[in-house]
Structures are given as C-alpha cells and as structure tokens.
Amino acid sequence: NAGVTQTPKFRVLKTGQSMTLLCAQDMNHEYMYWYRQDPGMGLRLIHYSVGEGTTAKGEVPDGYNVSRLKKQNFLLGLESAAPSQTSVYFCASKRQAGKSGNTIYFGEGSWLTVV
Amino acid sequence: DQQVKQNSPSLSVQEGRISILNCDYTNSMFDYFLWYKKYPAEGPTFLISISSIKDKNEDGRFTVFLNKSAKHLSLHIVPSQPGDSAVYFCAFGSGAGSYQLTFGKGTKLSVIP
Which one of B25, B46, B99, B101 makes the best mutation probe of the A interface by having the most chain A beta carbons within 10 Å? Predict the structure, then answer.
C-alpha cells in the first residue's frame, strides 16, 4: 500500500525561488492536509482541504498556497521562498467519517532548505 | 493560547521499565484523543486512540488513559523496548468526523538498553 506519497523528499531552494510540493494519496480520503514541523514547535497546520476543489487556511498559512484539483492530490506551493520556510513538510489525509474517522495518515515528509 | 500542552520535551527510561508520557488540554470540546509516534526521517504514524466515553484503552504494551475532569491524557508503555525510542505526539479532535487535529509539541522518548 502506497498510502500518502510526497515528492520531492529533499530540496534546496534559494531565497525568492518558487516550488511546489506534491502529495498523492491512494486511500480515497476526503480530507487532506499540509503540516510543517520545526524543532520545539510540533506539527503546525498550514492549509487543508475537505474535498476536491476546496481549500482552507490552517494555523500558519502565510507564504503558501494550495490546490486540490483532484481528490487524490494536494499541492503546496511556495511563491517566493524565505529562509523561515526551511522546515520538514508533511502531507496527511483522513477519510471523512467513520469509526476511525479522526485518524490522520501521514506521508514520509519533504525536507526543504531555503538558503 | 495553547490548547494542548506536552510539557516534557524528552524522557529517558531503562529498557523493561514503564514509560509514561503526558499531555494536558484546555479545550472542553475535544472528544477524541490520539497518540502518534515518529521516528527520525519518517512521517508520524498512528499508535493508539481513545474516545471521550472511555477512560482507558489498551493495545498490547500501549495503554492510553484519559482523565476528563483533569483534562489529562497519558500514554503508558510497558515494558519499554529500545525500538520504542521515538518522538511521541498527542493529538486531539472534536466533533464526529471532525476534520482537524490539534497536536502537542512532542516528547522524545529514549529507551536505554
């Protein structure tokens, strides 16, 4: 089972460059999320989507944009990368409801360094 | 305003002993509680959960305890094994099928052989 797949796994960007992180899930989940993890800060929600064609802001959305054109994909874009965006990014997904409806499944992470 | 506090950034335990990880929360609307485990260079993985109608849930060596009156969640691992060394996050959800979880900052557990 592939589960949640993120690409790329590692990337180094120069300040001001743009890039897109791709997340794909094969579990037919309705909800998808982008988190970032920084030392001592835990997991912070950047943006999320409750279904195809919908997106919403999370706790730390500034400097990021997202799109959910297909149910299985959730893209995270950095329009003009800044050193403060150096972090580990995790994509996650969750089915809408049910017995385990509150369990979120994570990808393996994307390590981004902005120099 | 922190809704979740995971106050111990690290914990060291001898192999075979009990590991106890703790979280406190303030949001009374939370009704679903989870623990995630994260190894370096990997994504967090779901470990165990409990709903607000229970005060204990057990899965092998892992037991989660919920004290609703004290708004306190804990994870017990017994006996602890070196492979349990990881970062553990508590997570909280509210509402049936709710779409967001609020995570603690994590506790790094080191199990010493």
Answer: B99
